[in-house]
Amino acid sequence: MLCVNNYSQKYIDKCRSRVAAQVFAYKSLVATARNQSAPTDEPLLKAAIETFEPHFFNNIVLALDSYFVHRARAMERKDGNPLNEVRMLCNSMLNNNNRMCADKTITFDPAKFVLKYRVGDEMKLNEADFNLLSSAFFAEIESKYL
Hints:
Elements: H1 9-36, H2 42-67, H3 73-76, H4 82-95, H5 127-145
Helix pairs in contact: 1-2, 1-5, 2-4
């Protein structure tokens, strides 16, 4: 497929809605599990959620990127914006066992990144991390590709 220079607001909203539905499903699952568990099960449930959460949200980052995978790199730029961060996170997840790795084509300054990961850090996103990242990502998509 050729690179994409613009996305319609309808498409962006549809993607945002898909992401919101996935986060809602996660929150519903966690709430139901908490409501159904006995107080004595709380430590086990907490450990299970803490184990599951980063896998779930790391994978949603991959899905988020895939919705816009053909975005034009020239329009994305290479200045360390949220689109670059998501690209680096995905490459690191897929090719470096969830450890942040540098990308020679992107100006990498962890201080400018939403999640502040440094090279070598293990990426374990939680719900709050993902919400910050996805909000910044969608804002950047709208500012550059709408």
